[in-house]
């Protein structure tokens, strides 16, 4: 094997490893809030992995650079599109805004007892945490 | 519902000022109960199965994968006069406020 070929293969393997690490580590570290929300290190790894794979292919077109490059592209593009495109949510309906009065409501709590938001008025601040539920 | 864990410090800060955290989802009562027990939450979890509060705050979202109406994930901070002083609505499924950032917002309000 020539040196140029060996070097191209090295780029290819590193690229594949970076793409795989970027995607897989996101799901392993999903409990870390800033990773979950921003996915910054994972995005950098995915893009760098893709770049390394492309450099490998440009340097030498072999089965290894093309195969690892395809896999690397699938992993990186799959990861980036799922995090940035598929998971997008619509905007809220702009019913409430900062500075306006919070709409009152009365709903049952986990024990079935009714809780009314306005019962806290004049008493203390309230943080409403709306979550999706079901999973 | 991972966003409900890790809010212990926020709840303590609010409680010390006479307030509280209130969590809300479009779950059935039994799921609400399960979430509350499983996560040992120090605050109430409300069951908004008809999406009345969720709609009142403009957070209704039709979730296409399960074909059901759920809430957009959101944090809304209300002062003791009932006025909204801060809100954050997730723009992606995985967007969640860091509990430390939420605590900072609460402390800003209490200062």
Please explain how this structure is put together.
- The complex is a heterodimer of chains A (about 140) and B (about 110).
- Chain A is mainly alpha-helical.
- Chain A contains four helices and three strands; from the N terminus they run ααααβββ.
- The radius of gyration of chain A is 24 Å and the shape is rod-shaped.
- With about 110 residues, chain B is of the alpha+beta class.
- In chain B, the strands form three sheets. Chain B has a two-stranded parallel sheet with strand order 1-2. In chain B, strands 3-4 form a two-stranded antiparallel sheet. Chain B has a two-stranded antiparallel sheet with strand order 5-6.
- Chain B starts with 7 loop residues before the first helix and ends with a helix.
- The mean pLDDT of chain B is about 90.
- β3 of chain A pairs parallel with β1 of chain B.
Protein traits:
heterodimer, A: 135 residues, mainly alpha, two-stranded antiparallel ribbon, 4 helices, 56% helix, rod-shaped, B: 111 residues, alpha+beta, 32% helix, globular
Helix tally of chain A equals 4
Determine the strand fraction of chain A and express it as a percent band.
5-15%
The outline of chain B comes out as globular
Residue runs with pLDDT of under 50 for 5 or more positions of chain B: none
Principal-axis shape of chain A equals rod-shaped
Q: How large, in whole angstroms, is the Cα Rg of chain B?
A: 14 Å
Largest sheet report of chain A: 2 strands, antiparallel
Structural class of chain B: alpha+beta
Straight-line distance between termini of chain B:
29 Å
Q: What's the overall average pLDDT of chain B, rounded?
A: 92
Strand order of the largest sheet of chain A: 1-2
Assembly category: heterodimer
* Number of H- or I-type helical stretches of chain B: 4
Largest interface: A-B, 53 and 77 residues
- The strand line-up of the biggest sheet of chain B is 1-2
